[in-house]
Amino acid sequence: MAIEIGINPLTWTNDDMPSLGRETPLEVCLKEGREAGYTGFELGNKFPRKEGLLTPILNNFNLKLVSGWYSGFLLDRSVEEEIESAKGHVELLKSMECNVFIFCELTNCVHGKIKTPVRHRVPFQKNRWTEYGKKLSEFSSFLKKQGLQLVYHHHMGTLIQSEEEIDELMQNTSEDVGLLFDTGHAYFAGANLSRILMSWQHRIHHVHCKDIRKDVLAYVENKNLSFLDAVLKGVFTVPGDGCIDYEKVFDQLKEANYKGWLVVEAEQDPAIAIPLKYAQIGINNIIKIAKKTGLIINHKS
Fold it and tell me: Cα torsion at 27, 156, 227, 114 (round to 10°)?
């Protein structure tokens, strides 16, 4: 597929902190997202999870379903248990003609705990990489047979957030296991974005575009805040509005012949960061930077 630009409903209504945007109806998210020029949405907590209900809602706004987050617990579950748990999600994605399955391991995660500093998250146990890699590879192989590409979402406050952990994950899994490259989470974790792109470009099948406010990140780290407090302070913003060098990121995606979605996923407090305004800033910056770098995007507003 060609590169398309999508958005996550976190801009309007937050899954980890439902009080943010609680009153905003799904239809407002979709209407404003389409108005801003996006062609697809990822799932959020206000989306119906049945194709018969979801399809007419999205069709109303001429939108596609990009994919949706799946919370995995494969570290402690068997592959068979994880397949059973994922059954409904798999069927929804297949029925909506999605290509990727977004997987994040949430065993021992702290990203949803507002009183737990992100620095206190539990890192991955080194003696479990082989076992985990084997299980994730088997689960990914199952998804491949369903027509879905697993993309692993490295994420602050979870077992896999650092560059070293991303490398270990990729080295201990089969080629069937893809990577969701999230610019904001990688930068937040202190990773070298260019090095991740260079090392794993052939396995990157999905990209989340968020930016970082450097001064806020310094404050968050200095005050030892939780992930949710970091979000409330405004650590994330849309691409091109922070300190990440998106020209370099897009140059490397072009060199890698990336084909897939670029998804704006910049969780902020919608009472402070007006969702439509930031959705427009995000897509306009992506289009501008893509033109400058020669990254070809299939976009019609």
Answer: 90
With residue 263 as reference, give the H or E element that holds it: strand 261-264
**pTM (whole model) above 0.85:** yes
Distance of CA 64 to the CA centre of its chain: 17
Q: If DSSP codes are grouped into helix, strand and coil, which group holds residue 102?
A: strand
The conformation of residue 126, written as its DSSP 8-state character, comes to: G
CB–CB of 236/291 below 8 Å? no
CA distances from 30 to 6, 96, 115, 284 (A): 11, 16, 32, 18
Residue 284: how many CB atoms within 10 A of its CB?
15
- What end-to-end distance do the CA atoms of the chain give, in Å? 18
Which residue matches tokens 């560059």? 163
Q: What is the pLDDT along the chain (301 residues), one digit of tens a residue?
A: 689 999 999 999 988 888 888 899 999 999 999 999 999 999 999 999 999 999 999 999 999 999 999 999 999 999 999 999 999 999 999 999 999 999 999 999 999 899 999 999 989 999 999 999 999 999 999 999 999 999 999 999 999 999 999 999 999 999 999 999 999 999 999 999 999 999 999 999 999 999 999 999 999 999 999 999 999 999 999 999 999 999 999 999 999 999 999 999 999 999 999 999 999 999 999 999 999 999 999 876 5
Domains in the chain (CATH in brackets) are: 4-293 (3.20.20.150)
Q: What is the distance between the alpha carbons of residues 29 and 7, in angstroms, rounded to a whole number?
A: 10
Query: Cβ distance 197 to 181 under 8 Å?
Result: yes
Beta pairing partners, 206: 180
> Sign of torsion, CA 201 227 25 239?
negative
What is the C-alpha separation between 189 and 185, in angstroms, rounded?
A: 6
Supply angle C-alpha 134, 136, 142, rounded to 5: 105
Q: Are 214 and 187 in contact (CB under 8 A)?
A: no
